[in-house]
Amino acid sequence: MSNSLKLTNVSKSFGEAKIIKNLNLDIKKNERHAIIGPNGAGKSTLFHLISGHYKLTSGKITLNGDVINNLEPHQINRKGLARSFQVTNIFPKMSVYENIRCGILWSLDFKYSIIKLVNKNKELNKKTNVILQEVNLQHCAHLPAGLLSYADQRALEIGITIAGGADTLMLDEPTAGMSNSETERAVNLIKQISENRTLVVVEHDMGVVFDLADRISVLVYGEIIATDTPNNIRKNKAVQAAYLGTEEH
Amino acid sequence: MLNILKPFSTWIIIAAIAAALPLIFESSFALTLLSKMGVLIIFTVAYNMLLGQGGMLSFGHAIYFGLAGYASIHILNGIGEETLPYFPTVLFPLIGAIVGLFFGSIVGYVSTRRAGTAFAMISLGFCEMVTAMTLIFVIFFNGEDGIQTDRMVGPEPFGVSFGPQIEVYYLILFWVLLTVALMYIITKTPFGRMSNAVRDNPERAAFIGYSVRRVRWQAFALSSMFAGAAGSLHAINYEHIGFESVSVVQSGAVLFMAFIGGAGHFLGPIIGAIGLTYLDSTLADITEAWLLYLGLTFSGIVMFAPGGLAGLIVMHGPIARTNKNLLFSLIKPYLLAIGSVITGLLGLIGIIEMLYFRSLISKGEGEIIIFWTEFNANGILSWLIFIGLILLGIFLSKRTFPVAKESWDNAISVVKTEISNE
Fold first, then answer.
1. pLDDT band per the 50, 70, 90 thresholds, residue B139
2. Among A84, A127, B259, B304, which has the minimal tally of Cβ within 10 Å of its Cβ?
3. Residue A241: what pLDDT?
4. Interface contact flag, B212 A74, Cβ < 8 Å
5. What is the pLDDT of residues B245-290, one digit of tens each?
6. What is the ipTM metric for this complex?
7. Greater confidence, B11 or B340?
8. What is the domain range of residue B203?
């Protein structure tokens, strides 16, 4: 299987503090890859580096073979990488429907057009409805997104993330703060949307991680100490010492 | 045929009413006022492409309005002196639009690199710079005097010379309808939607493939373009342009209109432009303290109704759609609350008028007419009456406002349950 996302010797420092240290990571095409690690390990920083939110101090990141670490976030997105955020990141004043529709615009080549009308485009609106159905939010399509429940907002954010048709998805703690039933719903949704896509997910809930992931990377203090299948990670002594042993899961 | 026109029925009705207005209000004062309103409607709706649609607070948008005005005046004069070829007056807003677009693209390219406070400060800086230039480059701007022109130049197609004010009114009306319709359509385009998206959450907008800076820049340039069209009409309307048209004062005025009318809704700026232009023309003659009242109104709106007048109207939309009776049940508590506020305001206005009168006008005399009644500004009784009104207003408001708010909350919760039951 070919690589989707490849990180080579990636480092990131904030002043004196080295948050990510010479990190190497290969994420295969169409695999579900979880990144776990204790608080402060650098998981969110790693996400920000890959998505272009932060610039690398050194190293190289490629997406489907193209170097992306020198690009702006919107350029990386256009290359087929979409992400969600740890804190819900939607357009709160716009309707749920419009949130999704905005997520689709670029992929249908609307660019910055001021001569096309969004309501009149059949393909755009059909696709919006398909995504709405996929994330199960048809019932509140015309409510302002800011009024949705937390779990629905997270689902909406996943909807926006997949709307542009990206082949690589990165989800940052998609089930954080959810009840058990909400988590179950979210995991099913993530499983379904990541069919035939590459998924990178940061998650604290070990139940979710072992249920979802094909492979797991363990990040501790800016370094990846192991990348393996869930079963092997469970058995890995270094991981147990650094992480699993110290927390209740 | 009629079915095709149906979606545009509101527009057609508004256009018809606007076209009939000069027949109802025949005085030249009314005609001048209506013309001014038209110009400012275009300018304010254009400004709101930045403020309301794009979330950019500019303190310097008069630059594009004013510079387009200067350019139009020079070209009118050039045609008049036959140094420039004839250009139809009807199409002058196109010149203004090009001038606005040109300067808006340049300044916007620099200022939209930043958002929030930095953007606002940059806009203020540019505005001060251009105002200073009007006083320095006298050859183009003619300093404090500004420039005069005569709009009756060239041939008169169909006998229309644009000499009489009524013809200028219809010229302005034509451009108001055209530009406002265009700006409305733009809100429905991919760019328009992404402009809202960038306003709501720039980070998210970047991660769905859009360059936030490019969206902001485009909004800035388009907004300046329409402001330029308004500037041309302003110049034709007054046959004069002065440094104040590019100044921070003019920029502030358009901000006031957009905000008081309601920046969050497309129609808000139109309400603001009509309302404030009317008050500006009428109240300025009645009271010296007009600017103080304007400032107080603005502060009041910022504090108590950040959605502006349009926001207050729109928040009743869901109630009106679900249950008309609920809406009627709100009338009584609202009237009581409004009555209380007016009581307090009457007192406040009385005090302000007497203070102004004593410090600026009276020269020792006491008689002053407030609300068609004679008061003695030197006597303690008048002061006691107005202070009493203020206290009564505050007292009543404290009782009626919670009731009004509760009625609204009740109505909204009823609407919510009705919607979720569907």
1. confident
2. B304
3. 82
4. yes
5. 999 999 999 999 999 999 999 999 999 999 999 998 888 888 888 8
6. 0.91
7. B340
8. 13-305
Co-location of B224 and B283 in the same domain? yes
Q: Domains in chain B: how many in total?
A: 2
Cα atoms found within 13 Å of the Cα of residue B98, Cβ hemisphere only: 6
Count of domains observed in chain A: 1
A144: closest CA of chain B, how far (Å): 12
Return the residue matching tokens 């009584």.
B332
Question: Which chain A residue is nearest to residue B195, measuring alpha carbons?
Answer: A112
Asked if B190 and A103 come within 8 Å (Cβ–Cβ), the reply is no
**B376 strand-pairing partners:** B367
Distance CA(A79)–CA(A65), nearest Å, equals 11
Confidence (pLDDT) at A249: 43
- In chain B, % of residues over pLDDT 90: 62
B288 in a structural domain: yes
Mean per-residue pLDDT for B334-349? Answer: 93
Highest mean pLDDT range out of B26-30, B139-143, B192-196, B374-378?
Answer: B192-196
CB contact under 8 A, A102 and B193: yes
Range of the domain at A216: 1-80+170-175+199-249
Edge-first strand listing for the sheet containing A58-63: A17-28, A3-14, A58-63, A66-67
Residue B296 neighbours by CB distance under 10 Å: 15
Domain-terminating residue out of B262, B284, B305 = B305
- Do A111 and A183 touch, CB atoms closer than 8 A? no
- Tell me the C-alpha to C-alpha distance, in Å, between residue B246 and each of B104, B204, B280, B320: 13, 35, 19, 42
**In this structure, is residue A39 part of a structural domain?**
yes
| CA distances to A1, B89, B133 from A46, in Å | 23, 60, 50
Give domain status of residue B4, yes or no: no
Taking 70 as the pLDDT cut, the residues of chain A under it are 1, 243-249
Residue B98: which CATH number? 1.10.3470
How far apart CA B276 and CA B245 sit, in angstroms, is: 17
Q: Looking at beta carbons, which residues of chain A come within 8 Å of B204?
A: 85, 89-91, 160
Residues B94 and B134 occupy one common structural domain = yes
Nearest by CB: B204 against A72, A89, A110: A89
Q: What is the distance in angstroms between the CA of the first residue and the CA of the last residue of chain B?
A: 36
- Directed axis angle between helix B248-261 and helix B290-304, to 10°? 50
Put simply, the chain B residues between 199 and 218 with a CB less than 8 A from any chain A CB are 200-201, 203-212, 214-215, 218
pLDDT of residue A248: 44
* DSSP helix/strand/coil, A243: coil
Residues A190, A21 contacting (CB under 8 angstroms): no
Residue A105 to residue B214, Cβ atoms within 8 A: no
pLDDT tens for A138-180 read 998 988 898 888 999 999 999 999 999 999 999 999 998 899 9
Residues B345 and B375 in one domain: yes
* Beta bridge pairs of residue B147: B241
Identify whether B197 is part of a domain.
yes
